[in-house]
Amino acid sequence: MRYFGLDVHKSYCEGAELLPDNTIRRFRFPNEKKEWKRFAKELDGNCKVALEATGNVSMIYDILAGHGARVVVVNPIRTRAIAEARIKTDKVDAEILVRLLAADFVCACWVASKEERELRTLLHHRAALKKQIVGVKNRIHAVLARQLSPYR
Length: 152
Prior knowledge:
2 domains; 21% strand
């Protein structure tokens, strides 16, 4: 089994792979879709990847899982070892993630199916649009009320 720990940021990803001799191979690549696909090509069903839950974790999850890797989305609040580390760098975070993964000490998050995530996105978008509609109506009513115009 190959183990990877990934510390994902807005513009890059810091990674660590636990090698069979218990050493760490570090790597880094830009946080771009084509780079994620390139990284995923190295993976297979014999790979386990840990990454913290972030805003773009769904896209990353789909890319990595699509290449057969077993992806574990880690709850960052419950991963206390990283939060309490004395030396807090991206490299250290990735290394701690991969070591916790190999020892089976990560607190995994449930990941919804792709279809459910898409439905949730649509629902959130619809709710936001509805909120905007109500706001516009309220502003129109306020303008009309200031002009003493009936608006009902």
